[in-house]
Specification:
2 domains; binds pyridoxal-5'-phosphate; seven-stranded mixed beta sheet; Aspartate Aminotransferase, domain 2; alpha/beta; 13 strands
């Protein structure tokens, strides 16, 4: 068979996708992926490295990482039967969509949002129905309700706090949506440790609610690829049937349990990131951007007609941010992750320099 005929055998829904891709640009200050800017301490890494030396590599990890599941359940405040651990929350979203979607199913999204939802919907041959956010980029709850009523039984995916806008859904808004929804709602709370309403308390009341969360953001472990889903035990036991066996390797499993045990080390860091975000928001609002959007997360969305010049100028200063201007509704928008205090100071200085504002190093006392 030739290449052309071979490629024709791949599902057309996959062939027509635009690949999700991020250029691996080298930079000294990396503010483009919403990671926690602080790594874990060396002593903790050494302890884990020793475990890896001692643990036989020729043996499978446990079929289900029960101990880790218990720890995650305790951290989330639910029973272990309501938890599945996965290889990043992206894997959990894939498992959910495999379980919940069928060809006739519509997937309702509130856009702009995390691009993976639409990518998976399209790739799995579903039909994405995108409800625009309001002009101020807050959730249009009335429009979401309308779409749910028009499309009973659809899968709804919402992200709160939302990437890349930074806004979140209140408890009341989530309840209002769930009251009218007759399908499943996947609520991606990858950034919830930084702000917004945690919907875990609603799981008992709404069996059609499933929450995904991650170790990649506040937990400072994006390199591990660990995430989890939370739901009612009955629903989770069904989802377990399609999850791949041994999806969590022994290294990640062990590291995650060590990180949860040491999670108090994160408390101060998360508080610092939140304070830095607020300080950054305040400073950005003094600068001549078209818009600086409120954020309950560890990143800030800005809009500027000079977005390309700003992006290039920051890059020339070793600061990499994310151009999100191709997202729907986000023309001229850039997303900036909150870095360390020092990184944020350099970012502010670089922006002041770009805009020609005086007061360079004003905060470096
Ligand atoms: C909203 C949202 N959900 C999920 C993910 C992916 O998380 P993970 O690293 O757990 O796969 C990201 C990553 O940027 C994200 O922004």
């Amino acid at each position: 068979m030739n290449y052309k005929d071979t490629l024709q055998l791949i599902n057309s829904s996959i062939r027509s996708l635009q690949a999700y891709h991020l250029d691996p640009l080298e930079t000294s200050i990396k503010l483009n992926q919403n990671e926690n800017p602080y790594d874990w301490p060396e002593e903790i890494k050494k302890e884990i490295a020793q475990f890896c030396m001692d643990r036989p590599w020729n043996r499978y990890p446990p079929f289900i990482p029960e101990d880790l599941k218990k720890m995650v359940a305790q951290y989330a405040g639910i029973s272990p039967e309501g938890v599945i651990i996965g290889n990043g929350s992206n894997e959990m979203i894939l498992v959910l969509m495999l379980s919940l979607m069928n060809q006739s199913n519509r997937v309702i999204l509130s856009q702009p949002t995390f691009t993976v939802y639409k990518l998976l919907t399209d790739g799995l041959g579903g039909q994405a129905l995108c409800v625009n956010m309001k002009q101020d980029l807050s959730f249009d709850v009335e429009a979401i309700k309308g779409a749910l009523i028009d499309n009973p039984g659809s899968v709804l995916i919402l992200c709160s706090p939302n990437n890349p806008t930074g806004g979140y859904l209140s408890q009341e808004e989530i309840e209002v949506i769930l009251e009218v929804h007759t399908g499943f709602m996947i609520l991606d709370q990858a950034y919830v440790e930084f702000g917004g309403f945690s919907a875990i308390s609603l799981l008992g009341r709404y069996p059609n609610l499933i929450i995904t969360r991650t170790f990649s953001k506040a937990f400072a472990a994006a390199g591990l690829r660990l995430g989890y889903m939370l739901g009612s035990p009955e629903v989770i036991s069904e989802m377990n049937k399609i999850k791949l066996p041994y999806n969590v390797n022994f290294f990640s499993e062990h590291v995650a349990s060590v990180l949860i045990k040491n999670r108090t080390l994160l408390d101060g860091i998360i508080e610092e990131i939140k304070a830095e975000r607020d300080s950054l928001l305040q400073t950005l609002r003094t600068m001549p951007f078209e818009n600086v959007y409120p954020s309950a997360s560890n990143f800030i969305l800005i809009r500027s007609f000079k977005k390309q010049e700003i992006f290039d100028f920051l890059k020339s200063r070793g600061i990499l941010i994310r151009d999100v201007s191709k997202y729907p509704m986000l023309q001229d928008c850039l997303r900036i992750s909150v870095g360390t205090r020092q990184e944020n100071m350099l970012l502010k200085d670089a922006l002041r320099e770009f805009f020609g504002v005086s007061g360079l190093n004003a905060e470096c006392k």
